[in-house]
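Feature request, filed as a ticket because there's no other form

It would be nice if the structure record came with a short human-readable summary line next to the tokens. Right now we just get the raw output. Example of a typical job, pasted below so the devs can see what we mean:
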Amino acid sequence: MNINKKKLFILPVIFSAFLMLCGCTYQEVHQKAYLRNISVSGDDIKTVFMNFYNEDLSPAKTENCDFESILKNSEILSGKSIFTGHTEVIILGDCNYTETLKYILEEWKVSPSCLIVYGGENSGNIIENSDSDTLADILRTAVKQKRIPENDIITVLSSLLKNNQAEIPVITSDGNLDKTIIS
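Raw output as currently delivered:
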């Protein structure tokens, strides 16, 4: 067998091995719902609005007593498993901030660069009515311009655990930014 025939034989073997060793296939990517933004309010009964990267999924509202049930119910409603590792923004309503952020970071495994903002009573409306494509960009730009404090989940949660309070941005339903202290 000459060298060209050997190369032709080895190429499919190498390509097949490559495909088997790769993490995600095209089909697996489309079987997941990628969480982009989330709003959380409530302590005993939590109300969560989720916004996804997937264009075919509209913002979803789920209520339950714990985050594990919320995630499972949202997966059933969307018909897809939810991947939380690319979550960009968490909008906090009235809730136990430390407990909420700690759970979402440790159990939902959101990115350490996930941004935190306070939305108050309007947190769900912000998810439903805001341009989710630009929300994280607006927050990052405001931090760079020093209009609002650093607000990634690690910074905010560290401050809550150390000082029992954290300064975070507030976003109003009309999209304006300010600062507030949560505890």
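Something like this underneath would help us a lot:
Helices lie at 3-21, 26-30, 67-78, 97-106, 123-129, 135-144, 153-163.
The chain is about 40% helix and 25% strand.
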